[in-house]
Design a protein that fits this description.
single chain; 354 residues; alpha+beta; Arc Repressor Mutant, subunit A; 3 domains; four-stranded antiparallel β-sheet; 11 strands; 18% strand
């Protein structure tokens, strides 16, 4: 954020206008914008050569890129981020879009799932992108849980509740997780889940971790006192027990060491699972994710505009969004997503949902 502010402060009025025009031209046409095109639209009358020099400076700053030799320029991911944060003019939602959205949620139908399905279809239709709708969180007992790896740093949790509701949530898993470790985590959680809400599951895991920690400390106490072992990184989340002179360990001490190793493995596994549960509970605020900032869709060069919706108590209970190419019409889509989130929140609050 500080780097972006520094770059922004280094732009003079001429550079700002050239940059804004390049980005707006690219978002409008999807094509690189050349210096000759810009000279016809700039407020200040400049030669094509002067505009090219300004564009080269913007390229050196990492804001623009030239996809082909002697071609025009396109914004980089950093450039798009700068434009969205500092240059974009967010329009008011169009009256036709507003009417279409209000018609979507205007039904007296009590089925929340059908309402959100219609909202998703309306968002997709008016923005020509894929819609994203996260349904309200609730605290029914968990019947089944599944973790699905989407990429190295993105995963999906599928929650099936005892009341028949199903929720899908995307989260960033703890580092180093594999599809098989996620299956093991799901199997472990499912064995504990029956009759417990997600919050109760997290509390149960915290107690399990505390019990394992006490058991390890009790077994290790004699080894540390005798000088055969010492703690590395005491007090840290992932401290280790360093054993000296393993050949000197006999009888019960060797058995204790193997027991400690097994308990450590179990402790780390439970910590990872507890972190899974913590991460699935977290929610994001209003955000625009561009390109690789959007971990779930970065491989396809997509962007995500997402906004939370709230219940009557101003608690975030879900989210709506639009996924599309990085060349999204952000100025139009941001107010559509924002208005949709407000509308859904009001409708659900009026029905006493969430």
């Amino acid at each position: 954020m500080e780097d972006r502010a520094k770059i922004l402060s280094e732009l003079n009025d001429r550079s700002r206008e050239v940059f804004r025009r390049v980005v707006e031209g690219y978002l409008d046409s999807g094509e690189p914008v050349g210096s000759r095109t810009l000279t016809r639209t700039l407020n200040e009358k400049l030669s094509a050569a002067t505009v090219r020099n300004v564009m080269q400076d913007l390229e050196l700053m990492g804001l623009l890129d030239s996809p082909h030799v002697s071609a025009g320029r396109v914004p980089t991911q950093l450039g798009l981020r700068m434009f969205v944060d500092g240059f974009m003019e967010v329009a008011h939602i169009d009256a036709n879009d507003r009417a279409a959205l209000e018609g979507t949620v205007g039904s007296n139908e009590s089925d929340v799932a059908s309402l959100l399905d219609r909202v998703g279809s309306a968002l997709s239709g008016m923005t020509h992108g894929a819609s994203l709708v996260l349904t309200p969180k609730h605290e029914a007992a968990v019947k089944h849980i599944e973790f699905v790896s989407l990429s190295a740093d993105r995963a999906l949790v599928v929650l099936v509740f005892a009341d028949g509701q199903v929720e899908n949530r995307v989260f960033t898993p703890p580092p180093g997780q594999t599809p098989s470790s996620m299956r093991e985590a799901a199997n472990f959680v499912n064995a504990l889940a029956e009759g417990r809400t997600l919050s109760e599951l997290r509390g149960h895991m915290a107690r399990e971790i505390g019990a394992r920690r006490q058991e390890i400390d009790a077994l290790a106490a004699d080894l540390v006192e005798s000088g055969l072992a010492q703690w590395e990184g005491p007090g840290e989340s992932y401290e280790r027990l360093i054993v000296r002179g393993r050949a000197n360990l006999l009888g019960s001490e060797a058995q204790d060491l193997e027991r400690i190793r097994t308990l450590f493995d179990d402790l780390e596994r439970k910590r990872d699972i507890a972190e899974f549960l913590d991460l699935t509970e977290e929610g994001d605020g209003v955000r625009v994710f561009i390109g690789s900032e959007n971990k779930l869709f970065s491989l396809s060069g997509s962007s995500l505009v997402v906004s939370p919706y709230m219940n009557a108590d101003r608690k975030i209970i879900g989210a709506v969004g639009v996924i599309g190419p990085t060349r999204l019409n952000y100025g139009r889509i941001v107010p559509i997503v924002d208005y949709t989130a407000q509308l859904v929140g009001r409708m659900l609050s009026g029905r006493g949902k969430g």
